[in-house]
Amino acid sequence: MPKIGMVSLGCPKNLVDSEVMLGILARQGYELTPRPEQADVIIVNTCAFIEPAKRESINSILEMAEYKKFGAAKKLVVAGCLVERYWQEILKEIPEVDFVIGTNELERVLEACGDSGTRRSADAPAEPYLYHEFTPRLLSTPAYSAYLKIAEGCDHPCSFCVIPQMRGRFRSRRFASVIREAENLARQGVREITIVGQDTTSYAEDLGLRDGLASLLRELGNIPELVWVRFLYCYPNRVTEALIAAVAETPKVAKYLDIPLQHSSARVLKLMRRGSSGRQFLRMLEKIRAAIPGVALRTSFIVGFPGESEDDFKALLDFVAAAELDHLGVFLYSNEESSRSFELSDQVAPQVARRRQRQLMAMQRKISRCKLRRMVGESLPVLVEGRSEETELLYQGRSERQAPGIDGSVLINDFAGPAPQAGDFRWATVTGAGDYDLVARLEARVFAERPTPATPVPAGSPLVPFQPNPPMCGPFSLRGQKDGPSQRG
């Protein structure tokens, strides 16, 4: 059978789609290769959230198309969000592309990779798709860590965002399905699960379940093999008291919240069709910190949104100074032609937006450095990830305050006991700090989990046995980003 190679671009949600397609192919006996020059079929799973992501996707398609000329490739398949927005342009302007797969058509990857598979014309719109616990999936992340997608699509009306056009209406996976997949991942050796979805905080509302994410976190916290459970992408007005309590009271849930606020000026937030204000956000953050001591908080902002004045940006600077967030990403506004904000007047000049981005990140760099220096001398659990990417002299890991792929690292320059191994959970003592990274000495003590809180954690629904997935395998290029260019901070 043909050898298959894959390039997966974009956010972790897109990465899960790539893993599902790889799993479907592996179940049918296809061989997967990490070397593009050896692949008979190359799949590029694209991102099209903002302009830089679109450019990266197009460049990757063109790069992989070269292997049809100089490698073994006989077929080039393009999948993902770029297909949803521009499938006609892709097929018209890049004749090397043989097949396109939309976000609701992952199972068509078998047709795409088959001997006769070609798709250069439109079909009827596909039914909304959700993978489930019996869908084969091959992990491309390290064996100890995996993403778990619990929902698809989005119902929020944010004026700058085109995700609903690409992913459809919000729809949740069944509660039992998510639990069964998490159990299976844990049996495969996964010790850290990161929950993703366009809006995880709306989970199960469409199924009639109130506080679904809170209930899910508590239930995942009962899986013995798991050490950390974290979740990303909280919509600000969906951070409920029940959710905060679930994070505070469930020992295995990382004390970490990612809440994309997008701005703090009430006027800009109204133009974004998100509402709220910096004052309300500060009250929310205060409530979270009071309930979850030591919690790490991450957010992202957009600068250069149409109509953003210097006063609006000053309000954002003041908010960041007051909030003292642990991690922050700053994105330049991307004027997407199908978004509601595309026709707004008072477009901000690109050079002004870039200056604001630099200014905001400079402020956050100082905040981050100050907060990390306060941690020197503390002991904290660390997940070892292996040798440092920068030098073989150091090991690298993460604390629960650092999500995979988007935050800083813990650099290990000394250790007691056995040599660190990727996937180890051990205690470490912080000995130094940079702008975004910690330096630590790894202790011999193994970290299992925190003691159970004095307040009992309510039990969830019973777990149901489930058959395991195929063995794990990964694509040859995974350039994961969090909804566009990553920003450390």
Structure description:
- This protein has 489 residues and is of the alpha/beta class.
- The protein has three domains: 3-123, 3-Layer(aba) Sandwich (Rossmann fold), CATH 3.40.50; 145-373, pyruvate-formate lyase- activating enzyme; 379-446, OB fold (Dihydrolipoamide Acetyltransferase, E2P), CATH 2.40.50.140.
- Helix content is 30%, strand content 21%.
- The protein has 13 helices and 19 strands.
- The protein has helices at 12-27, 51-65, 67-70, 81-93, 109-113, 163-167, 175-188, 212-220, 241-249, 266-271, 278-291, 310-323, 350-373; strands spanning 3-10, 31-32, 41-46, 75-80, 99-101, 145-149, 151-152, 171-172, 192-196, 228-231, 256-258, 296-303, 327-332, 379-387, 395-399, 410-415, 425-433, 438-446, 477-480.
- The strands form five sheets. Strands 1, 2, 3, 4, 5 and 19 form a six-stranded parallel sheet that branches. A five-stranded mixed barrel has the order 14-15-16-18-17.
- The longest helix has 24 residues, at 350-373.
- It is globular.
CATH homologous superfamily (4th level) name of the largest domain: tm_1862 like domain
Question: Taking Cα atoms only, what radius of gyration do you get, to the nearest Å?
Answer: 22 Å
Number of domains: 3
- Tell me the distance between the termini: 45 Å
Count of individual helical segments: 13
- At the first level of CATH, the class of the largest domain is Alpha Beta
Helix content: 25-40%
Task: Please provide the count of β strands.
Answer: 19
Determine the mean pLDDT: 90
